[in-house]
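Hey, resending since the last one bounced:
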Amino acid sequence: MSLPKRDGVHDRYYLIHKPDTSPEVLAEADLCIQDVLNGTARENHSAYPTVVRNHNGTPFLPDQLLERYLTGLPLKEFPCEDAVSLCDAMRRLVGWQEIRYTLEKYIEKQVQERFFLVGERDDGFTVFPPCTVWPELRPEDVDEGLLRFACYVAVCHTVYGQSFESLTTEHILGLVSQLRPDMVKQLKTAGSGKLPKDIQQRKTEHFTASANDAFATIRITARDSTEECYAEILDYLCAVLEQEEFPRSYSVEFRGKEKIYLPIPGLPKKGVNQLFACAVQHPNLHPAIERYARLAMREYEWYQNLADEACAMPGSFAVFALGLEGEQWAPLVAEYLDLCDDEHSSLQEKFLHALIRKFGFQTWTLGVLVRGALSMQWLKPAKEFRNLIANAESLDALLTVKRRFSAYLLPEEDKDPKFRAIAWRSLLWTIWGSSSENGGIKVIKSAPKELKEKCQQVFA
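The structure tokens again:
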């Protein structure tokens, strides 16, 4: 990184935390903050470090923008809802890890250091120091809005952070509970309190369920395995997601009597997998499963109880369940694949392998595979693919897709000849792997005599 120029500009972004930052730069930063709130700001998803640009294209570091915004807020009558709106918008734009540290330090400074006597850690194992309320602290000195914001930051560490960040959640909630134990108790039992009562808790003869918007959790227990039971559960899930207050990243914890899972090797055997494996057995429920999937699917949002390599966008298991039912669900699957975060999501590979194993290479499955190949960095072929493609019908289907390839691309993708070529090569790689390189010479050479010409046409 080069040194900043005299006007405060690095080679890739403006710095705004220095005392001598020019008013013009600060005005652009405030404009950028407003653009984040409006949804018109943009970020560089693949470059490092992440920067946020306002609609003029002026770049800033997201943590500095957030710090500038928070330091400008009053500590008396703290505007919690406004602060949460900005943090949520920033998180959606750049990701939780880009703003986590700034929020943690803000709570440390404005809550922990102002209201507590901070002791020394007396061992090497505790992460946070012991904190006791200042003896002279008066109740009127503690702003409720600020404590609510502290609770929000605490919960975000669990909902959006890595597993170890739950320690930060416990620490911050521990601070708040010394000042307002009722606030923390309410948060843990009923969430923010903004959800309707029949969404917070629901109990019927078929199932019991609860939803907590603060911790972004939905817990469901099925009492039986009937179609009526799963119909009610799906209706409840959709009702929860239709609440604007409920987070778009969340966890679904399901318990049921039927211990079956989707027939996709390598898929995590979690309750949400079990739920849709059970529900999809009832054709009458397929429209309800689709409804849930469309409500759930959001780019850069996740099921929070699936970690690391098993991470999945909400709606994944519903889409997988329907996708394995056949061609009529191909459009939904394609929509899902287009929303997948190509840098972090990989469960779709396991689904696509299962799809091809079940239905083989047809024009519609190849159309899905085109979108799948574009949904992640490198979609590896399953070992069975070479045998499944090695027949006249499958190769004819592939040649049909080649002739109509534009129909399988988005309009903006189809405009770029280089992209079209890359997309086609990605599809071939997804079928044959490294043998598809160098014009597919290995594939053509090893093909049976009666298939050689078709293979040559594929790679021509």
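The radius of gyration is 26 Å.

Sorry for the duplicate.
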